[in-house]
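Running this now, will post back.
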Amino acid sequence: MNTRDTATPAHDQHTGAATDDPVTITYEELDGARIAVVALNRPAKLNALTMATLRGLDAAAKSLRRDRDLRGVIFAGEGASFCAGLDFASVMKKPLDIVSAFAPNPLARDGANLFQRVCWEWRRLPAPVIAVVHGHCYGGGVQLALGADFRVTAADARWSVLETKWGLIPDMSGARTLADHVGAERARWLTMTGEELSGTEAVAAGLATETADSLDDAHARARDMLRQLIGRSPDQIAATKSLFNSAWRSPRATFRAERFQQAKLLVSENAARARAAGLKKRAPDFVSRGTLIFGRKKR
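Update: finished.
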């Protein structure tokens, strides 16, 4: 995984990153806030997923999760496509790697394996994640995109739950995320048929959030969306993500999650700043995510 800081917007660099790493992270400043651009970087292979890519995505998500000053993430693909799914030719060369990656982690709270974790970790990331989709978005690519909070797609992108072509089902958290976004009935149809949708059709189906005319427009729109989110408390954003990840459990569990997240916000410095700014009708000045109100200096 390659990490670099740049003042140049990543949407001016989508012809391919100057590294052999299958996953890259580029940091930018957006309206004074720190954001990251995570890019799949196998453009010659349409960013098809290898074991190295999966490990790179896992490491990237874990690294970004520890960054309390991170305010947003754009998730994209270099070259002509977002992601064409699993690279079977590469992955099947080392079947023991597949067995290892497929095994659930008994120490994790959700027991996710590596394939599931690389998609679901973007939902657990406390900062908002926006996927920029263009070209092919097939199979595992769909599941990666659905792990983001929002998806801006080129109108002519091609989306398909392509696992059916190989006699398989989505197994990278897709059973949950597909049903979350399109409903169980449509999720069954797309999974059984592998029906291919354009970006415009993907928005109509609920797979994507909105369309853009071109890849550059999609990157620009993703940044516009992040600008809106950066204006909100980073702790409130993190609490919202956590709450909605668990909202479809029993009412008892959902209500418990609401109470827990709200209690944390009530003692957070950023919530206090948001309230003070709202009363004074000015823009809030937020601090690092997770800062508690206790012991703060009076202003």
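The first strand starts at residue 2 and ends at 5. More later if anyone needs it.
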